[in-house]
Amino acid sequence: MKIRFLYFEDCPSHDEALRRLRQVLTEEAIPAEIDIVKVETDEQAKSLRFIGSPTVLVDDKDIDPQSGTQYGLACRAYQLEDGRISPLPSLSMIRRAVRAAAKKQS
User: Fold this and answer.
1) Does the pTM of the predicted model rise above 0.90?
2) How far is Cα 25 from Cα 94, in angstroms, rounded to an integer?
3) By C-alpha distance, which of 78, 63, 64, 46 is closest to 3?
């Protein structure tokens, strides 16, 4: 399983998002390595198709594909299962993406 974690330093939620990602991987007993990418320029953001910090890609798929296609150095908002907006993906959102990828590999 390929996991990439992209973040922009100016957005304060990336530390907690990375902690949540690691928590899910531990709970699901998935020994995947996380490729952590610090996005520093607009050019880099465009080339990585970075829609905001934090972004989690599992097997090159965004865990929240409905987020949009505006690329650049920005903080990201996630729509949670209950409709609220959050700067962090929920544990269940991360878990769904990880489980779907694991299922495809088995």
Assistant:
1) yes
2) 9
3) 63
